[in-house]
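Progress note, sequence design subtask.
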């Protein structure tokens, strides 16, 4: 578990923002995870046109540094590839300028952490276990080291140029729809925070989050802590499959990237099929179908002739798959479908015992 301290000073300055360049980097992560997948869980990534376009660009030889990053990616992504959004909706050009003007010393430190691992990586991610501190694979390391011989300033500018190519080829045409979906998601979270309080709303953003003792706990296989009072930027992502922390220990630069599942054109949702296939059985599918409107555990138990304990168990699995969300209203906890579940189910059929027409 990684604990993010959320004292009043940090909570007051934590905000949401969109990140076009961050989403471009998320496409790199999607391709890297699919390339290294041995379980089939990431297979659905290739069904999105953005990920397919990214994969083709990386294979074309036109973006050698990004291709090297993708090949060498394990657990640490250099932070200059995910610049902190300075406003709610920065343009890609604004963020690319920040990449191209990153402090050269910082560029060198980040690439050293990426390439060599060890203490250089531990300083940026102190919670990583020993097995995740190794150097990048040889091919990736060779390409980046060769470029670094020209100087860190050259590397940052080349990365900015390649990110611009990735943006144009894979994401620019789709960005208005992506941004609109993410902005709608942020508006929903703002309404939830207004009703329940910001801390409670943070804890309900993702199944790996828990709000406890003025801190946000993020489920992880290792133990770590993000202390301090500097602000955090919450960034919704339609391409990441898991929560990501970008520059969490850098003052005023930390980002928490939250996967969202707003419906895509054509009614599809990225990664929905591989994630939900092992989760949905007859009972859970029935529960999901009846959550077109908010219901409590007791209401679901009565509707489906199940015990409250059984319903709670099934809901916990649906929560873990990001198919349902929970919201507290006074003393009651209500459950409802997420956009991912709605996109998966399509048109809602009649409820059990309801009218057919």
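Output:
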């Amino acid at each position: 578990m990684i604990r993010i301290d959320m004292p009043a000073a940090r909570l007051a300055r934590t905000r949401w923002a969109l990140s076009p360049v961050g989403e471009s980097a998320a496409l790199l992560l999607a391709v890297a995870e699919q390339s290294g997948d041995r379980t089939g869980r990431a297979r659905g990534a290739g069904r999105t046109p953005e990920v397919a376009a990214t994969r083709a660009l990386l294979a074309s030889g036109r973006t050698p540094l990004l291709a090297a990053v993708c090949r060498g990616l394990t657990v640490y992504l250099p932070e200059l590839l995910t610049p902190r959004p300075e406003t709610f909706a920065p343009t890609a050009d604004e963020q690319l300028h920040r990449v191209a003007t990153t402090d050269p010393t910082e560029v060198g430190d980040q690439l050293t952490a990426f390439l060599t691992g060890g203490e250089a990586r531990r300083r940026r991610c102190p919670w990583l276990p020993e097995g995740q501190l190794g150097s990048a694979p040889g091919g990736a390391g060779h390409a980046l080291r060769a470029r670094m011989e020209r100087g860190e300033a050259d590397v940052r500018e080349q990365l900015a140029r390649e990110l611009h190519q990735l943006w144009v080829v894979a994401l620019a045409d789709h960005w208005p729809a992506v941004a609109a979906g993410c902005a709608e998601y942020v508006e929903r979270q703002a309404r939830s925070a207004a009703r329940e309080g910001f801390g409670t709303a943070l804890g309900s953003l993702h199944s790996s989050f828990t709000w406890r003792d003025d801190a946000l706990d993020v489920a992880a296989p290792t133990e770590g802590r993000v202390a301090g009072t500097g602000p955090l930027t919450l960034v919704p992502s339609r391409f990441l499959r898991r929560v990501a922390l970008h520059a969490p220990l850098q003052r005023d630069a930390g980002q928490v990237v939250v996967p969202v599942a707003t419906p895509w054109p054509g009614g599809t949702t990225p990664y929905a099929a591989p994630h939900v296939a092992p989760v949905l059985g007859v009972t859970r599918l029935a529960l999901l179908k009846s959550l077109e409107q908010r219901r409590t555990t007791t209401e679901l138990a009565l509707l489906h002739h199940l015990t409250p304990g059984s319903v709670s168990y099934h809901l916990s699995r649906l929560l873990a798959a990001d198919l349902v969300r929970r919201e507290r209203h006074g003393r009651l906890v209500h459950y409802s479908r997420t956009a991912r579940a709605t996109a998966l189910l399509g048109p809602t059929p009649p409820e059990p015992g309801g009218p057919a027409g």
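Strands lie at 2-5, 15-16, 209-212, 215-218, 224-226, 233-237, 244-246, 255-259, 324-329, 332-337. Work on this subtask will continue into the next period as scheduled.
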